[in-house]
Amino acid sequence: MPEKLFRLAALAVTLAGPAIAQIAILQIQIVEGEGAVHAPGSRSARPLTVEVTDETGRPVPGAAVSFHLPDDGPGGAFANGLHTAVALTDGNGRVSLHGIQANRTPGRFQIRIVASKEQARAGVMASQYVAEPHSGVATAAAAKGRAKWVVVAALVGGGAAAGVLSAGKKSAAAPTAPAAPPAPPVTTTPTVSIGNPTTTWGRP
Protein backbone atom coordinates (compact mmCIF):
# COMPACT_ATOMS: atom_id res chain seq x y z
CA MET A 1 0.00 0.00 0.00
CA PRO A 2 2.73 2.54 0.84
CA GLU A 3 4.41 1.70 -2.47
CA LYS A 4 1.18 2.40 -4.35
CA LEU A 5 0.83 5.79 -2.64
CA PHE A 6 4.43 6.62 -3.50
CA ARG A 7 3.78 5.86 -7.16
CA LEU A 8 0.67 8.06 -7.19
CA ALA A 9 2.60 10.94 -5.59
CA ALA A 10 5.39 10.56 -8.13
CA LEU A 11 2.83 10.60 -10.94
CA ALA A 12 1.26 13.77 -9.55
CA VAL A 13 4.63 15.49 -9.41
CA THR A 14 5.42 14.36 -12.95
CA LEU A 15 2.11 15.75 -14.25
CA ALA A 16 2.44 19.00 -12.37
CA GLY A 17 6.08 19.48 -13.30
CA PRO A 18 5.58 20.70 -16.92
CA ALA A 19 2.81 23.14 -15.88
CA ILE A 20 5.11 24.74 -13.30
CA ALA A 21 8.03 24.75 -15.74
CA GLN A 22 6.00 26.73 -18.30
CA ILE A 23 6.19 29.86 -16.15
CA ALA A 24 9.34 29.04 -14.21
CA ILE A 25 11.28 31.55 -16.30
CA LEU A 26 9.99 34.81 -17.73
CA GLN A 27 11.58 36.91 -20.42
CA ILE A 28 10.68 40.55 -21.00
CA GLN A 29 11.55 42.60 -24.05
CA ILE A 30 10.89 46.22 -25.04
CA VAL A 31 9.02 46.24 -28.34
CA GLU A 32 8.41 49.99 -28.76
CA GLY A 33 9.43 53.19 -27.03
CA GLU A 34 13.07 52.49 -26.16
CA GLY A 35 15.21 55.65 -26.36
CA ALA A 36 12.23 58.01 -26.68
CA VAL A 37 13.04 61.73 -26.40
CA HIS A 38 10.42 63.91 -24.69
CA ALA A 39 10.04 67.66 -25.03
CA PRO A 40 10.12 69.33 -21.59
CA GLY A 41 6.69 69.33 -19.97
CA SER A 42 5.09 67.40 -22.83
CA ARG A 43 2.88 64.30 -22.74
CA SER A 44 4.22 61.45 -24.84
CA ALA A 45 2.04 60.26 -27.70
CA ARG A 46 4.28 57.25 -28.35
CA PRO A 47 3.52 54.20 -26.14
CA LEU A 48 6.04 52.16 -24.23
CA THR A 49 5.28 48.53 -25.17
CA VAL A 50 6.83 45.38 -23.70
CA GLU A 51 6.36 41.70 -24.45
CA VAL A 52 6.56 38.92 -21.86
CA THR A 53 7.39 35.35 -22.91
CA ASP A 54 8.44 32.11 -21.25
CA GLU A 55 11.76 30.37 -21.79
CA THR A 56 10.49 28.81 -25.01
CA GLY A 57 9.47 32.16 -26.48
CA ARG A 58 5.73 31.67 -26.08
CA PRO A 59 3.74 34.76 -24.96
CA VAL A 60 2.60 34.82 -21.33
CA PRO A 61 -0.87 36.37 -20.94
CA GLY A 62 -2.03 37.73 -17.60
CA ALA A 63 1.44 38.62 -16.35
CA ALA A 64 1.58 41.70 -14.10
CA VAL A 65 3.96 44.33 -15.44
CA SER A 66 4.96 47.28 -13.27
CA PHE A 67 6.63 50.46 -14.55
CA HIS A 68 8.68 52.68 -12.24
CA LEU A 69 9.87 56.25 -12.97
CA PRO A 70 12.64 57.97 -10.99
CA ASP A 71 11.50 59.90 -7.92
CA ASP A 72 13.67 62.92 -8.77
CA GLY A 73 15.80 64.34 -11.56
CA PRO A 74 14.87 63.87 -15.22
CA GLY A 75 11.68 61.85 -15.58
CA GLY A 76 8.04 62.67 -15.04
CA ALA A 77 4.80 60.92 -14.15
CA PHE A 78 2.46 58.38 -15.68
CA ALA A 79 -1.12 59.12 -16.74
CA ASN A 80 -2.29 58.30 -13.19
CA GLY A 81 -0.11 61.13 -11.85
CA LEU A 82 2.19 58.69 -10.01
CA HIS A 83 5.71 57.39 -10.58
CA THR A 84 4.45 53.76 -10.71
CA ALA A 85 1.91 52.08 -12.98
CA VAL A 86 0.82 48.42 -13.23
CA ALA A 87 -0.89 46.63 -16.14
CA LEU A 88 -1.56 43.04 -17.27
CA THR A 89 -0.32 41.52 -20.50
CA ASP A 90 -2.89 40.64 -23.17
CA GLY A 91 -3.29 37.36 -25.06
CA ASN A 92 -0.15 38.14 -27.04
CA GLY A 93 1.89 38.68 -23.89
CA ARG A 94 2.10 42.43 -24.55
CA VAL A 95 1.21 45.53 -22.59
CA SER A 96 1.47 49.20 -23.63
CA LEU A 97 1.75 52.22 -21.40
CA HIS A 98 0.53 55.56 -22.77
CA GLY A 99 0.72 59.20 -21.75
CA ILE A 100 4.02 59.66 -19.93
CA GLN A 101 4.12 63.28 -18.73
CA ALA A 102 7.73 64.44 -18.88
CA ASN A 103 9.01 66.98 -16.37
CA ARG A 104 11.19 69.97 -17.25
CA THR A 105 14.51 68.62 -15.97
CA PRO A 106 16.63 67.77 -19.04
CA GLY A 107 18.70 64.61 -19.17
CA ARG A 108 18.63 60.84 -19.45
CA PHE A 109 16.49 58.67 -17.17
CA GLN A 110 15.42 55.03 -16.99
CA ILE A 111 12.08 53.35 -16.49
CA ARG A 112 12.41 50.16 -14.47
CA ILE A 113 10.04 47.47 -15.77
CA VAL A 114 9.28 44.26 -13.82
CA ALA A 115 7.08 41.37 -15.01
CA SER A 116 5.79 38.66 -12.70
CA LYS A 117 3.60 35.58 -13.05
CA GLU A 118 3.20 33.27 -10.06
CA GLN A 119 6.75 32.66 -8.81
CA ALA A 120 8.51 33.82 -11.98
CA ARG A 121 9.88 37.34 -12.39
CA ALA A 122 11.88 39.26 -14.97
CA GLY A 123 13.04 42.86 -15.30
CA VAL A 124 14.39 45.30 -17.84
CA MET A 125 15.32 49.00 -18.03
CA ALA A 126 14.01 51.38 -20.70
CA SER A 127 16.14 54.44 -21.44
CA GLN A 128 14.34 57.74 -22.02
CA TYR A 129 15.40 61.37 -22.38
CA VAL A 130 14.04 64.79 -21.54
CA ALA A 131 15.33 67.22 -24.17
CA GLU A 132 16.96 70.57 -23.47
CA PRO A 133 14.41 73.42 -23.48
CA HIS A 134 15.87 75.05 -26.62
CA SER A 135 16.84 71.87 -28.44
CA GLY A 136 15.49 70.81 -31.80
CA VAL A 137 13.06 68.37 -30.15
CA ALA A 138 11.51 71.07 -27.96
CA THR A 139 11.34 73.48 -30.89
CA ALA A 140 9.75 70.85 -33.12
CA ALA A 141 7.14 70.07 -30.48
CA ALA A 142 6.30 73.76 -30.11
CA ALA A 143 6.14 74.19 -33.89
CA LYS A 144 3.83 71.20 -34.15
CA GLY A 145 1.52 72.82 -31.64
CA ARG A 146 1.51 76.06 -33.66
CA ALA A 147 0.99 74.35 -37.02
CA LYS A 148 -2.79 74.19 -36.60
CA TRP A 149 -2.97 77.90 -35.88
CA VAL A 150 -0.76 78.66 -38.87
CA VAL A 151 -3.06 76.66 -41.15
CA VAL A 152 -6.14 78.42 -39.80
CA ALA A 153 -4.48 81.81 -40.17
CA ALA A 154 -3.46 80.93 -43.72
CA LEU A 155 -7.02 79.98 -44.57
CA VAL A 156 -8.45 83.14 -43.06
CA GLY A 157 -5.72 85.24 -44.64
CA GLY A 158 -6.34 83.54 -47.96
CA GLY A 159 -10.00 84.46 -47.79
CA ALA A 160 -9.14 88.06 -47.00
CA ALA A 161 -6.60 88.10 -49.79
CA ALA A 162 -9.21 86.75 -52.18
CA GLY A 163 -11.56 89.53 -51.12
CA VAL A 164 -8.87 92.16 -51.67
CA LEU A 165 -7.97 90.63 -55.00
CA SER A 166 -11.59 90.64 -56.06
CA ALA A 167 -11.92 94.26 -55.05
CA GLY A 168 -8.71 95.00 -56.89
CA LYS A 169 -10.06 93.44 -60.06
CA LYS A 170 -13.14 95.60 -59.85
CA SER A 171 -11.12 98.77 -59.25
CA ALA A 172 -8.73 97.84 -62.04
CA ALA A 173 -11.48 98.16 -64.64
CA ALA A 174 -11.39 101.35 -66.76
CA PRO A 175 -13.26 104.08 -64.90
CA THR A 176 -16.34 105.40 -66.61
CA ALA A 177 -16.04 109.12 -67.38
CA PRO A 178 -18.87 111.12 -65.87
CA ALA A 179 -21.42 112.38 -68.41
CA ALA A 180 -20.83 115.96 -69.47
CA PRO A 181 -23.54 118.32 -68.33
CA PRO A 182 -25.94 119.25 -71.11
CA ALA A 183 -25.12 122.50 -72.89
CA PRO A 184 -27.42 125.34 -72.03
CA PRO A 185 -30.04 125.96 -74.71
CA VAL A 186 -29.17 128.67 -77.20
CA THR A 187 -31.87 131.25 -77.45
CA THR A 188 -31.99 133.42 -80.56
CA THR A 189 -33.72 136.76 -80.58
CA PRO A 190 -35.20 137.69 -84.00
CA THR A 191 -33.69 140.92 -85.36
CA VAL A 192 -35.75 143.30 -87.54
CA SER A 193 -33.88 145.93 -89.54
CA ILE A 194 -35.86 148.95 -90.69
CA GLY A 195 -34.10 151.18 -93.17
CA ASN A 196 -35.07 154.41 -94.89
CA PRO A 197 -37.00 153.80 -98.08
CA THR A 198 -34.93 154.62 -101.12
CA THR A 199 -36.48 156.02 -104.29
CA THR A 200 -34.52 155.97 -107.53
CA TRP A 201 -35.43 158.34 -110.27
CA GLY A 202 -34.32 157.63 -113.77
CA ARG A 203 -34.55 159.54 -116.96
CA PRO A 204 -37.80 159.21 -118.81
Structure description:
The protein is α+β, with helices and mostly antiparallel strands and 204 residues long. It folds into two domains: 17-132, Sandwich (Immunoglobulin-like); 134-169. The protein has helices spanning 2-22, 136-172; strands at residues 26-32, 36-38, 48-54, 64-68, 76-77, 84-88, 94-97, 101-102, 107-117, 120-130. The chain has a five-stranded mixed β-sheet, with no helix packed on it. A three-stranded antiparallel β-sheet has the order 1-3-7, with no helix packed on it. A hairpin with a 2-residue loop joins strand 9 (107-117) and strand 10 (120-130). The protein is elongated and about 45 Å long. The protein starts with a helix and ends in a 32-residue tail after the last helix.
Summarize the structure.
The chain is of the alpha+beta class and 204 residues long. It folds into 2 domains: 17-132, Immunoglobulin-like; 134-169. The chain has helices spanning 2-22, 136-172; strands spanning 26-32, 36-38, 48-54, 64-68, 76-77, 84-88, 94-97, 101-102, 107-117, 120-130.
